[in-house]
Design goal:
Elements lengths: L1 E8 L26 E2 L8 E7 L2 H8 L7 E8 L4 H9 L2 E2 L2 E2 L4 E5 L20 E8 L6 H8 L4 E9 L2 E2 L8 E6 L3
Parallel strand pairs: 3-9
Antiparallel strand pairs: 1-3, 1-11, 2-3, 4-8, 4-9, 5-6, 7-8, 9-10
């Protein structure tokens, strides 16, 4: 059986088990042995990190050709326009090439979202808005680069879903363990 851990990573935590600089890591939250993150989230991003002891499953999750969907809740600066949402759905030109088409829609602030520590920077005269963005690739800082490319910088980024797994019912900084048949 494969061990699977669904971890709701807080802001500021590195997606690795050690850090020579003493910053918070997965080891500060997860005491399971022989599990490894299937993909990463940047230190300034929050949400679902899938860890497993199954190398084949880890590869299936991270390999872009498998096209496993990942859904993000993204708070951006300004009220996101229909034109920006449309651009995200057809693909955005980045320095490393055009992104694959994505699913993008405007949403209300997620009701189940926890307060972020530290809070995002708020500007009195600049509104913010939320979108749900689903992609099938995982380039470095891709979601942040995509929203910036369409004129709406990311203020807060939460990965809500990887494949069929979500953070539903998992508080920030907590995890649940599952088992599955080996792939």
């Amino acid at each position: 059986m494969s061990k699977i851990i669904l971890f709701n990573k807080p802001y500021g935590v590195l997606c690795q088990f050690t850090d020579k600089q003493g910053r918070p890591t997965l080891a500060d939250y997860i005491d399971e042995e022989n599990v490894y993150a299937a993909g990463r989230l940047d230190r300034d991003s929050e949400g679902l990190v899938v860890l497993t002891d199954d190398g084949k499953l880890q590869h299936k999750i991270t390999e872009p050709k498998n096209k496993m969907e990942k859904t993000y809740w993204v708070q951006v600066e300004h009220d996101i326009s229909d034109a920006a949402l449309q651009a995200l759905t057809i693909g955005v030109e980045l320095k490393d090439g055009k992104t694959r088409p994505a699913k993008a829609k405007r949403i209300d602030a997620p009701a189940s979202l926890w307060p972020r520590e530290p809070p995002i920077r708020e500007r009195k005269n600049i509104p913010t808005s939320w979108l749900e963005l689903t992609i099938k690739e995982g380039r470095n800082r891709q979601v942040r680069r995509m929203t910036a490319a369409v004129g709406f910088p990311t203020l807060r980024l939460v990965r809500y879903r990887v494949g069929s797994w979500t953070i539903d019912g998992i508080n920030s900084g907590e995890f649940i363990s599952l088992t599955a048949r080996k792939t």
